[in-house]
Amino acid sequence: MPVTEEDQLLVGADLDGELDPVNAIALARRIAHDPALAAERDRVTALHNVLHTKIVPEAPSDVLRARIEKAVGLRRPARAPSWMALAASVMAATALGSGVTFVTTNPQQGETTADVVVSDHIRALMAPQPIDVASSDKHTVKPWFNGRIPEAPRVVDLSKDDFPLVGGRLDVIGRDPVPTLVYRHRKHIISLTAVPAPGKADATPVERTDDGYNLVTWTEGGVTYWAVSDVAAADLARFAELFRNASENQ
Prior knowledge:
Phosphorylase Kinase, domain 1; alpha+beta; 7 strands; 7-stranded antiparallel sheet; 2 domains
């Protein structure tokens, strides 16, 4: 598969250290299975090495900073990225024949858990597959998390209710890896992220929407669950209820 302009920009942002952990991991997985993308990474790495060798770091002027922001459509985050790295990204993208570039920053301080789980869900849908471990068997999915996170999540079988288990993956909230179970309902994917919440009181499900996606969140047994999907709100609420009432032994 040919390398797209978006892939070129992602590789440049990754080499500048501007990708968040989830995007960086997803890109590394793609590079490992795509020789063309790996070759692109090597080419851009060589270009970056030349740029960093030939360009003497200096503080950019306010005029240059404003021009760079305008060129990439950047909204200045709470903690600005390295302007030298940003300038190098723009130059690298130009050398590769691209007219624009972008930078993905780490989650900003005002970003909520809902924002993060929706972003993780969207990134998973854009990846070659939305899971790290593919299985409909809870006895395969649950042990996969052992050793990767402090405690494996609760996994239940809801296939008889038309919510079959697809697998699981690791997501990142803040700087902590968290387990996400992936279920399917008809043609829709449901991501269920389990965020440790020790000492937090149990709370009944709350429904909401975020960026066009439906969410249901609740807290139970020291864990806050976040279910997100583009499935109908009523179906997602039913999924949450079935999950809450199901036994791991069934």
